[in-house]
Each structure stands twice: as structure tokens, then as C-alpha cells.
Specification:
single chain; disordered C terminus; transmembrane helix; 2 domains; 394 residues; disordered N terminus; two-stranded antiparallel ribbon; transmembrane; mainly alpha
């Protein structure tokens, strides 16, 4: 009987050493990962014979196809991590910039409008360029655009602003950032994707780290209305990661962001029109890092960094890492928010918050390791249990 399938990383390494370059008839490879090495023709022929017995006459081609795909997946995951870090860093200063605007006389809804409205204007030209010849996709994906603009962009932030009227802002933020945990539970209950043990440990570590980072133990006012609003924000956050990782039907990410921002802008203005939110603004100036800054500069920064850049990076990360892993990388936003608040508003983080940031990072790494699954193509290889082959691979 065949032994357990090897880990993908071990599989890649072993086959890479056997075939560092595509085999050519009559030529024996002489290098392995840049290290000089030679193999006898007899040994090479024996290995080829074993390979053909195990995988069939086209086994060598299939192994090479698998190896190339695994290498492409590794590059894709690496770029996904970079996009996730960019997204977390870009989302981080949103709170500090909003506080600066509020201190300059802007209402929370006006700060939100500056973010989504500014981002939609910034992305207008790139969106028009990327949509050339694809405008029919817009009509096909209008439900996705509507959901993205109303739920992850507008509703999540509106729910958070409502929650902090009733409960401690730290408590509201903690509940909201349980969104990735809700996503894991939803995938488990609805689709049967049971989280691995590492993912479970990472989830617990992320929640505990979050509690330390926002110093939730400093004071909690439990109000059912506030908890309900922050819970709605958590659901919206889970929807954001799920939509970012889903199939957009050929709709470019920049277009999804732009049209979603437009929908959110209309929603905020409509909310102000019916009296749900208040839109007020002041002439400024705003104060950042102890310096007076023109309020319009802060508005522009709000639209560019936590608006356009952050959401685009979040979608790119979700498409490369999947919604679960990208969601837990998003927890690093809280750590970045503390740093941004320290630099821009002069509020120093406490040592316990630094410890919490380290715990969040550890939890994020555990989740990424726990969600790494063997390549599907590897599990589907039709290995034939030939006795001599089994003795070699067991």
C-alpha cells in the first residue's frame, strides 16, 4: 500500500532535484538548484522507468506540469502577502485622519464622504481606461458592485460610527474585527470547510491579541444596541473579504472599487438627505504630527491612501490568498492604526498594546500555515500500486 502523500514543498524539492530542467533525450542534467552535480545514465533510466510505472506513459509531462503550477502558486502567494501588507498599512491611518478632520469641524459622515467620494474621483480615469471594451461586464456584474458599495464600503463604517455612540470604541472595534472569524465559521457551517487545528489556534490568538492591542480591559460598557451595531460591522467586514476573493466575472479590480465607492457616496448623501447622518465640515486647518495642515490636503490623503489604495490592495490580496488568510492579515490594520495614531496624533502606544500586536502577528502566521493545503493536482495523480513502485514510495 502506498504511503501518505508528501507535503507539496517536499514534493517540489524532490522532483526538482530529479529534474532541474525538462529532460531531453540523451542528455543528463548536470545542475541541481545551481549546485554542480552529475547523475549516471543508468540511474536516470531507472528513475524514468519507475516514474512511468507509477504515473503512466505521460507521467513525466504531468509531473512537470504539476511542478510548474506549484511554482506559480508559490509566486502568487508571495505577491498576495505583499498586497495584504499594503492593504493593512493603507487602511491604518484612516482613523487618525478622520480624527484630524473631526477636530477641524468635520462630522464622521463627512469624513466618510471624503474617503469614498475622493477615492471614486481618483479612480475615475484608471477605471475608464481599464473598462475599454468591457462595459458590457458592468451590466452583468451590477449586483456585485451594488453589494460591494453598500455593504463593505458604506454599511461597515456607518455601523461602526453608530456603535461607538453606545459602547466603548475599543469594544466596538474588537467585535468588528471578529469578521474573519465569522467568515471561517460560515465556510465551515455552510460549505463544510472545517478549519485546521492551526487555523483554530490562530483564530484564538488573533482575538486575544486584539483584546490586548485595543486595551479592551480598560473599560467596557456593554450595551445591546451598541453590540448589535458592531456585530453588523463584523458581518460587513466578513462580506468584504468574501467578495474580494470571489469571481468578479472579468470586472477589473479598479473598476469594482471605483463603482463601489460611487455607490457608497450616493448612500452617504442619501442618508444625510433623510436625516440618518449629519454632514458638516469646517474650514480647518487640521493638525497632524503637531503641524497645521490644510484640511483639503487631509481630505485628499483620506481619498488616496485609506480609500483608493487600501481597497485595491485588499482585493488583490483576497484573489491571491483567499478570503480567510487575507482576512486575518487584515487584523494587522489595528497594529498599523496604533502606529499611525502615534505618529500623526502624538498618542503613544502602551507596552501591552505592543505585546498584543506580536500576538496578532503570530496568529496571522498560524492561520496562513493552517490554510495551506496540498495542491489539488497532486492528490489527483493516478498512482498505480505496482509492488516495486509502492516499495519505493511508501
Amino acid at each position: 500500500m502506498l504511503g501518505p502523500l508528501p507535503d507539496p514543498a517536499d514534493f517540489t524539492e524532490s522532483w526538482g532535484r530529479a529534474y532541474p530542467t525538462p529532460p531531453v533525450a540523451g542528455v543528463v542534467p548536470t545542475t541541481v538548484d545551481g549546485v554542480a552535480a552529475r547523475r549516471s545514465r543508468q540511474g536516470q533510466d531507472s528513475f524514468d522507468s519507475l516514474l512511468i510505472q507509477g504515473l503512466g506513459s505521460n507521467g513525466r509531462t504531468r509531473v512537470w506540469s504539476l511542478r510548474n503550477r506549484m511554482q506559480e502558486d508559490a509566486v502568487k502567494r508571495g505577491s498576495g502577502v505583499l498586497w495584504a501588507l499594503v492593504a493593512a498599512a493603507s487602511f491604518s491611518p484612516a482613523g487618525a485622519l478622520a480624527v484630524a478632520l473631526q477636530q477641524a469641524g468635520w462630522s464622521p459622515a463627512a469624513a466618510l464622504l471624503a474617503r469614498v467620494g475622493g477615492a471614486s474621483l481618483i479612480l475615475a480615469i484608471p477605471t475608464v481606461l481599464t473598462m475599454r471594451g468591457r462595459w458590457h461586464v458592468l451590466a452583468q456584474q451590477w449586483r456585485l458592485i451594488l453589494a460591494y458599495g453598500l455593504i463593505p464600503v458604506a454599511a461597515a463604517q456607518f455601523a461602526y460610527f453608530q456603535a461607538v455612540q453606545y459602547i466603548n470604541p475599543g469594544t466596538a472595534l474588537l467585535v468588528e474585527y471578529l469578521g474573519p472569524v465569522l467568515l471561517v465559521l460560515w465556510l465551515w457551517v455552510r460549505h463544510g470547510q472545517r478549519p485546521s487545528r492551526r487555523t483554530g489556534v490562530g483564530m484564538v490568538a488573533a482575538v486575544l491579541g486584539m483584546m490586548l492591542v485595543i486595551d479592551v480591559f480598560a473599560g467596557i460598557t456593554v450595551n445591546p444596541v451598541g453590540l448589535t451595531w458592531s456585530g453588523l460591522a463584523a458581518v460587513c467586514l466578513a462580506v468584504y473579504y468574501a467578495l474580494s476573493a470571489g469571481d468578479h466575472g472579468g470586472l477589473p479590480p479598479v473598476a469594482l472599487i471605483c463603482f463601489g465607492m460611487v455607490i457608497a457616496t450616493v448612500a452617504v448623501v442619501a442618508g444625510a438627505g433623510v436625516g440618518v447622518v449629519e454632514l458638516t465640515s469646517g474650514p480647518g486647518p487640521a493638525v497632524l504630527a503637531g503641524m497645521e495642515v490644510p484640511v483639503l490636503a487631509v481630505v485628499a490623503l483620506m481619498g488616496v491612501v485609506p480609500g483608493a489604495v487600501a481597497f485595491i490592495a485588499g482585493i488583490m490580496a483576497g484573489q491571491r490568498l483567499g478570503s480567510t488568510v487575507a482576512g486575518f492579515f487584515g487584523l494587522l490594520e489595528v497594529v498599523g492604526a496604533i502606529v499611525a495614531t502615534w505618529l500623526l496624533l502624538g498618542e503613544l502606544p502602551q507596552p501591552i498594546q505592543l505585546v498584543g500586536g506580536a500576538v496578532i502577528l503570530a496568529g496571522t502566521v498560524l492561520v496562513k500555515l493552517g490554510e495551506s493545503r496540498p495542491t489539488e493536482e497532486l492528490s489527483e495523480l493516478p498512482l498505480t500500486p505496482v509492488p516495486e513502485v509502492a516499495s519505493k514510495l511508501a
